[in-house]
């Protein structure tokens, strides 16, 4: 609640604001936020890694064909990395835009 102390100086005291200033309360919110963000980041990394791993496994036959006509392991690795970079350049901005839209609404 809000209490008013009358006298020379009109002073309003808000117990809710005083509670928010307690160091333990803000620290626990920050810790919860950090843990939640960490879980989301780790889950995202795992999902992206698995998606690329599945793509590579499915394309093993194509990579074998490229190797049989003379492509080196380095060239195949560069193909995979270029594909990943291309997808990231498209996906990251789209993800950021969607996040901003979600936060705005």
UniProtKB/TrEMBL annotation:
Q: Where in the cell is it found?
A: Cell membrane
Q: Where is the ABC3 transporter permease C-terminal domain?
A: 35-103
Q: Which family does it belong to?
A: Belongs to the ABC-4 integral membrane protein family. HrtB subfamily.
Keywords for this entry? Cell membrane, Membrane, Transmembrane, Transmembrane helix
Complex formation: The complex is composed of two ATP-binding proteins (HrtA), two transmembrane proteins (HrtB) and a solute-binding protein.
> Pfam family of this protein, just one?
FtsX
A GO cellular component annotated for this chain's UniProt record is:
plasma membrane
Q: What is this protein called?
A: Putative hemin transport system permease protein HrtB
What the protein does comes down to:
Part of the ABC transporter complex hrt involved in hemin import. Responsible for the translocation of the substrate across the membrane.
* Keyword flag Ubl conjugation: no
Topology relative to the membrane, per the entry? Multi-pass membrane protein
- Has UniProt tagged this entry with the keyword Plastid? no
Give the signal peptide range.
Answer: none
The record lists the membrane-crossing segments as 29-52, 84-104
